[in-house]
Description:
Order of helices and strands: EEEHEEEHHHEHEHEEH
Helix content: 25-40%
Number of strands: 10
Largest sheet: 6 strands, mixed
CATH superfamily of the domain at 2-82 and 153-232: P-loop containing nucleotide triphosphate hydrolases
CATH class of the domain at 2-82 and 153-232: Alpha Beta
Structural class: alpha/beta
Shape: globular
Number of helices: 7
Bound molecules: adenosine-5'-diphosphate, magnesium ion
Strand content: 25-35%
Distance between the termini: 29 Å
Oligomer: single chain
CATH topology of the domain at 2-82 and 153-232: Rossmann fold
Amino acid sequence: xxxxxxxxxxxxxxxxxxxxxxxxxxxxxxxxxxxxxxxxxxxxxxxxxxxxxxxxxxxxxxxxxxxxxxxxxxxxxxxxxxxxxxxxxxxxxxxxxxxxxxxxxxxxxxxxxxxxxxxxxxxxxxxxxxxxxxxxxxxxxxxxxxxxxxxxxxxxxxxxxxxxxxxxxxxxxxxxxxxxxxxxxxxxxxxxxxxxxxxxxxxxxxxxxxxxxxxxxxxxxxxxxxxxxxxxxx
Length: 234
Ligand code: ADP
Ligand code: MG
């Protein structure tokens, strides 16, 4: 994947992303780390086309992220699953395929079944989100994000609402997907996972990229801010 940020600034009341310019190319799974409030989610939303940057240019795989069709070419998984509560896991996916992708009922059903099975939910497809575990619901969200065949999948702390056992299940599922060749940009606080999973790490501090490089930067941080961060996270 290729990510190009060119003088990217994003402002709410104050600047939360500050004049970021960087090109990252040739990696399949990129992790964004940093303390809470450092701008990770904002950057992820901009990269995925969910939010328009205040200033600057952003391209992902040579697509302008502000182009209206770009948003449809990516998948996004939020901190806690945002499945429709009144629909089964299967229907949560078929509705998206039918309404936004023009799938026939039959094709949508097959595709949904296929991705739920890939996430080890083949026997849970007719359950409502409230009747499965948080980890299963989060895996169903991932299945839904994948079902539209996205070019890149963006995950924002996909396990932050889960206990350690469920976290393990979800992270394992994500690892399997990486092995299938899918491309990810992920925000995570689980450093052991970031270390195994990512082939590039971006460390953010106060709206800036304070350090970036291969996962080995976690063992040997060059900046004081990353040293500090690594000393504090488990
Ligand atoms: P992180 O994901 O690293 O915790 P965020 O990108 O969520 O950081 O937030 C960065 C900063 O932007 C924080 O100070 C946060 O309070 C602020 N912020 C995030 N979203 C909004 C919003 N929709 N409106 C106003 N301020 C926001
Ligand atoms: Mg966040």
